[in-house]
Amino acid sequence: MSRPRFCRRVAGTPIAPVFKSAGIPASQLEEVVLTLDEFEAIRLADGEALYQEQAAEKMNVSRQTFGRIIESAHKKIADCLVRGKALRIEGGVVAVAGKRTFVCGQCGHQWHEEFGTGRPQVCPACQSPSLRRMDGGCGGRGHGQGRWGRGWSGGENA
């Protein structure tokens, strides 16, 4: 059984989720799926000309993982161009970047913080440290509960 993928941060979804050769009906074309994280890697590395280290940081992945993502994306795009296949952009374990929503457990005040600013320490309205994140987001590096929440120590997997 493979390890679950970490959540990757993307800036948004594509304007056009499908690209195909002109003059050939889509029903006659083989389709290749480019995941949203692969699309984001192409956007950052090729579209914005960022170095892999910078792009990896923006996506919340390691530089090595970014390298694997961009390599996979380049292969899929080349396959579509060379063999005249349709390219569909969808899926993947991603969180669309933007703003995180927090709510205060004390006074109920809700506010937004941009990604990369760190977790707020206190509510801006009442200064209470009782905060909770409301949106899904990535939930950190992965999307599980970590070692203790998965039963890796003792119990069924010991």
Compact summary:
With 158 residues, the chain is α/β, with parallel strands linked by helices. The chain has helices spanning 36-47, 52-59, 63-83, 146-149; strands spanning 8-10, 18-19, 31-34, 86-89, 94-96, 99-104, 110-114, 131-133.
What's the alpha carbon Rg, rounded to whole Å?
Answer: 20 Å
| Strand and helix order | EEEHHHEEEEEH
Total beta strand runs: 8
**Proportion of helical residues:** 25-40%
What is the 3D form? elongated
The span between the termini is 17 Å
Helical run tally: 4
Low-confidence stretches: 140-158
Characterize the main sheet: 3 strands, mixed
- On the 0 to 100 scale, the average pLDDT is 81
The amount of beta strand, in percent, is 15-25%
Could you please describe the fold and organization of this structure?
The protein contains four helices and eight strands, in the order βββαααβββββα. β6 and β7 form a beta hairpin. α1 runs antiparallel to α2, α1 packs across α3 and α2 crosses α3. It is elongated, with a radius of gyration of 20 Å.
